[in-house]
Amino acid sequence: MDALSNLHQRVSIAALEAPGPTSQQLDNMYRAAVRAPDHGAIQPWRFLNIAGDARQKLGELYLRAMAADQSLSPEQQTKFKNMPLRAPLIIVAIASTKDHPKVPRSEQVIAASCAVQNMLLAAHAQGLGAIWRTGELAYHPVVMEGLGLQEGEEIVGYLYVGTPMRERTAPQPDIDQFVSDWG
Ligand SMILES: Cc1cc2nc3c(=O)[nH]c(=O)nc-3n(C[C@H](O)[C@H](O)[C@H](O)COP(=O)(O)O)c2cc1C
């Protein structure tokens, strides 16, 4: 697939199955990630690969976090425990921001987010399916601690990656809706 077609046609795929990416495919995704624009060359990102049985551990962490706030029905417990089983690989994308005289933390989070988009594009270019997810489990202090986040770090997303269970076609919105001339 040529580069522009990849950009125009990328879609998120929620229905994912094994196999996950090969080590070569994953390496390509990370090499794309670290080519994100990065003011000050801070490299304000790090990533956790969660695959295999580690996904069950993540589900238990999700459950612990949600159960800390409220009592959960058995159905809700199952739902939180099974969330990470929706793909063979989950990449936790962490913005790892630093104090910098010229680059505010917000810009560093943007750079880390660009890294995630590069990974989505690299996944799509290789025929993999992927979706960027967040939700309350990306911001919960119990989850952040359990995943080992440090001061200045935040989760910008969970990237679910695997083999697409079905095809999806990219919508093609009317570009004129978003673009105008000024001056
Ligand atoms: C920061 C961020 C967080 C997101 N969180 C979720 C989420 O928790 N659940 C979800 O279904 N989609 C989430 N999305 C949207 C999907 O990743 C995806 O973009 C959307 O389903 C539209 O599909 P498309 O990328 O093919 O246009 C999020 C997107 C971004 C950028």
From TrEMBL:
Residues at which FMN binds: 10-12, 35, 39, 132-134
Keyword vocabulary terms for this entry: Flavoprotein, FMN, NAD, NADP, Oxidoreductase
Domain Nitroreductase, residue spans: 9-162
SUPFAM superfamilies for the chain: FMN-dependent nitroreductase-like
Pfam name, any one: Nitroreductase
Cofactor, how bound (note): Binds 1 FMN per subunit.
Record family assignment: Belongs to the nitroreductase family.
Protein name: Putative NAD(P)H nitroreductase
Species this chain originates from: Amphritea opalescens
Lineage, broadest ranks: Bacteria, Pseudomonadati, Pseudomonadota, Gammaproteobacteria, Oceanospirillales
